[in-house]
Amino acid sequence: MAVVASAPGKVLITGGYLILERPNAGLVLSTNARFYAIVKPLHNEIQPDSWAWAWADVRLTSPQLGREGHYKLALKNLTVQSVSSSSEGGNPFVEYAVQYSVAAAYATLDNNKKEVLHKLLLQGLDITILGCNDFYSYRNEIERRGLPLTPESLASIPPFASITFNTDDGNGDCKPEVAKTGLGSSAAMTTAVVGALLHYLGVIKLSSSKDQQDRKDYTDIDLLHKIAQTAHCIAQGKVGSGFDVSSAVYGSQRYVRFSPEVISSVQVAAQALPAPEVISDILNGNWDHERTEFSLPPLMTLLLGEPGTGGSSTPSMVGAVKKWQKSDPQKSLDTWRRLSEANSQLEIQLNFLSKLAKEQWDAYKSVIDSCSKLRSEKWIEQASEPNKEAVIKALLGAKEAMLGIRYHMRLMGEAAGVPIEPESQTKLLDATLNLEGVLLAGVPGAGGFDAVFAVTLGDSSSNVTKTWSSLNVLALLVKEDPCGVSLESADPRTNEITSAVSSIHIE
């Protein structure tokens, strides 16, 4: 029986750079772009002589990349070895996900269940991974087809389309680096694989997205989170902030990172100890991250745009900022403090708007409807009564806070010598903020040339997608979806309605 799990991509709207250090928080929205992992037995029946085997077969298929990898998983020390003859490198994220998920099964299941586990492993693991088109850039494909740069053109590309590799201009050499849109594909992929494996091996019970609203018990999900964070960090070779994995597991949230020691000790131990011992340390470690529920207030839409200037390297930008912090501690502390204040201010205003929507729905809805048709300098004229005035003041407060965040991020970039908000992005964001119904616009996460985001009121998002298209920016099909890792009922390729079709309404 196949198990299908999915995990969402993310957009970090506040907390770029600061989120790397406790106790700074970031607001991260999970999206309807999801990564899927399908796990099923590789062999229908167990071979009679298989009891003598000391390993399990693992096959990893990535149809979009046209790749298939074959591995042996040693059942004694749970190491994963590639036996593929193909020249392409493996996928360390999935390899560590397999190793640590199986180790977690051995570490947590009782002896009766271990026999079932052993049988499952002897049947081999057949793992297929699929990412929604939104994780990857299809700009070149749209241009090649002579289509306009619009969400409708994106929606016309079949779901889970094969990924074209970036081509170097000039001599036409193909680089194996896939052009991505910055939604956190490796975190979503790792989380989906860990979720599907832990469910398949009987370690946890995943719930479907429908059942998540009334979830009371997070025990299973917390275990999945620890395994996914560990696999992701070790595959990356460094302990990041982990917000991308956390949102892939739990969905939209306000996040404060875990202390890096909980994993860095494992990285050392992983070289020496067998995986089941390492994993016991992980499961019993002091995970001190903080996660609070958060999502955009009602009647607001998240939009993401791809400017098509090619991606930025997040690690090298983070490295430059850290170097600047060391070289000018006084100035950098001051900038960080102000940036942190602006982040908190935005969070306070958005939470207040959610509260007003709950308590004063009619006034809230009326303000959002009227402001969605106006530029922000005209909003205050709509304050005809105290309830409406409160909503408008919070909207303008949120907009003001976002401008403060952008200002301090630019200062930080200039001081560190990296393009956190490059000039081309500044012009684009300023033009976006001038449109009717636009509340926020910024560069997500670490910034750079990867993507821009906007938050719009009511039905005003179509103005933005049209304007972006005229400025050579492709609006993606991504929306906020606050749901985390989920159990799916079927292979997403067989679902009649794909996410692309259901998330687009063509005017």
UniProtKB/TrEMBL annotation:
EC code: 2.7.4.2
Pfam family, one: GHMP_kinases_N
GHMP kinase N-terminal domain: residues covered: 180-251
GO BP terms in the entry: farnesyl diphosphate biosynthetic process, mevalonate pathway; isopentenyl diphosphate biosynthetic process, mevalonate pathway; steroid biosynthetic process
Keywords annotated in UniProt: ATP-binding, Kinase, Lipid biosynthesis, Lipid metabolism, Nucleotide-binding, Steroid biosynthesis, Steroid metabolism, Transferase
GO annotation, cellular component aspect: peroxisome
Listed pathway(s): Isoprenoid biosynthesis; isopentenyl diphosphate biosynthesis via mevalonate pathway; isopentenyl diphosphate from (R)-mevalonate: step 2/3
Entry GO MF terms: ATP binding; phosphomevalonate kinase activity
Top-level taxon in the UniProt lineage: Eukaryota
Name the record gives this protein: phosphomevalonate kinase
